[in-house]
Amino acid sequence: MSSLASDKPPIIALFNYGGGMRGLIPAHMMVEIERRTGLPMANMIDVFCGPSTGSILNAAFALRHPKKPGRPKYRARHMVRFYEREGINIFPPDRYRALRGLIHDFNNRTMKIGQLNAIFRQGHYDPANLAKSLRALYGDTKLSETMRSLIIPTYNIDGEQLQIVEEEGETAQTPVHTKNNFVDEGGHAIWFKNIKFGRHLPTYKKAPDVTLFDAVMASAAAPTYFPCHHFEANWPDTPGTHDYACIDGSIFDNPCMTYLGALRQHVEPGRQIIMICLGTGYTNRSVSKEEWNSYGSLGVVDPVNDLPLINIFFHAPESALLESFTAEMQDNLYVFNKSLVTGRKPDWPGTQIDDGSPENLKKLKDFAHILMEENATQFDQVCDLLVRNYEAKQKQPLEQAKSWWHGLQARLPVLRRKTG
């Protein structure tokens, strides 16, 4: 287990996975963490990260209490109630959603009858329901106003906002960003970050001017479930307002990507990073070559087939980096997750992200307890680690004050001679 006996306490990052209603799984695990430690998550975690439903949880935990700015507004139990209350509104029961999606696709490819779009709503859930729930959760709070460091990933599908830049040696301007021959002229991943440590490092940047609502709506815009989220943001080092059309950050983000792409650059060399990953259940399935070849171009994104291509997109980056990531993190990595497919049992929750039925809510809670029971020793270690991290950070201001006072006393004779 990692030691906290160092010049600086480690940076503890909490990564919550995406997964729609399955966000109740990490929410219930955090209820138990708060029960055992007696502390809110925001008092024990240095940086919250993760996409989609994970970003919904993370942004809520990082939110300040409006009347008590030194305290968090929400605890884990509040977020459990949020999912139980709002889930049925965000994902209303709809037996025909998959059918609408297929008819919409058939219409676009063949019939081109625009009226069907209005009838079948493109197979999406109404984003207004999700928007109403998130507005109530975050209000107009800006990303820069969170009480803890927060990383929200999303993917911008529209490259029209990219500035025209002139590359060295070129005579004409080109609407692309290039560096080391990597060209970014279209869609690209975005990290919306408010980092509150490492301010002395050259990699430090102020948080962009964007609301928590917009950043989270963008990160939670799951393909085939919601349309992309359109919004504006301003960056402190870039002039002008940027226009974004974003979809679910889960298409690229996972603990490996967050660590390597968004977090490590903000931590000085030698300082520990400890990652705690709370899962929503792995849903990647094995697909036989016969099945894959039988799907065709539509079948690979058909909800009836459990969206095989999208599942692959979500899981492929993590599997590609997992070996090197775990080798680098070693004992500083704690993962609580398991497959919802392999060894599946009748009382396990569904793999769908949109099942807000009372029966599934109970199964999600039970699955969270299964994860904690199967990893009881590791879970105890995490609770102990979080408490010690909190206590170490509580001592820091006192130690800093003592150091300042001793330094002032040491300089007093010199100051007296100068003023005398």
Describe this structure in words.
With 420 residues, this protein is α/β, with parallel strands linked by helices. 44% of the residues lie in helices and 14% in strands. The chain has helices at 24-37, 41-44, 53-61, 76-90, 97-111, 115-120, 127-138, 212-219, 255-263, 289-299, 308-329, 358-374, 376-419; strands at 11-16, 47-49, 149-156, 177-179, 182-184, 188-194, 229-235, 238-248, 273-278, 333-336. The strands form 2 sheets. Strands 1, 2, 3, 6, 7, 8, 9 and 10 form an 8-stranded mixed beta sheet that branches. A two-stranded antiparallel ribbon has the order 4-5. The protein starts with 10 loop residues before the first strand and ends with a helix.
In short:
The chain is of the alpha/beta class.
Fraction in helix: 40-55%
Q: What coarse outline follows from CA principal-axis ratios?
A: globular
Rg from alpha-carbon coordinates = 24 Å
Query: What is the count of β-strands?
Result: 10
Distance between the termini: 55 Å
Give the uncertain stretches in residue-range form. 1-5, 107-121, 163-175, 179-184
Note the beta-strand portion: 5-15%
| Helix-strand makeup class | alpha/beta
Mean pLDDT: 85
Order of H and E elements? EHHEHHHHHEEEEHEEHEHHEHH
For the largest beta-sheet, the strand count, sense and barrel status come to: 8 strands, mixed
Helix count equals 13
